[in-house]
Design brief:
Pfam families: AIF-1 (PF21008). Helices cover about 50% and strands about 5% of the residues. It has about 90 residues and is mainly alpha-helical.
């Protein structure tokens, strides 16, 4: 994410502050803490990628649901490792 300055995978309160300032919507420290608390599902005091999508798109947004679905599908598929096994013509459908 562009606003994840330390590349930790999460947006902390200072990164959120800079993001809001860049968007022209400067917030107080208390407002930023409240924003994080509203979407922080991990209770770490930071915003991860799914939390960020929820914050920006809303919980009931169909685009959000599609993005999260494809993100989960990407995680589930484990790529085969090593060289692919040899196949003969008899193995083809």
């Amino acid at each position: 994410m562009e606003f994840d300055e330390d590349h930790s995978g999460d947006i902390d309160i200072m990164e959120l502050k800079r993001m809001m300032e860049k968007l022209g919507q400067a917030k107080t420290h208390l407002e930023l803490k409240k924003m994080i608390q509203e979407v922080d599902t991990t209770k770490k005091g930071t915003i991860n990628y799914p939390d960020f999508l929820t914050m920006m798109l809303g919980k009931k947004n169909s685009i959000l649901k599609l993005i999260l679905k494809f993100e989960e599908m990407k995680k589930e598929k484990e790529r085969p490792k090593g060289v692919a096994p040899k196949k003969s013509l008899a193995d083809l459908p």
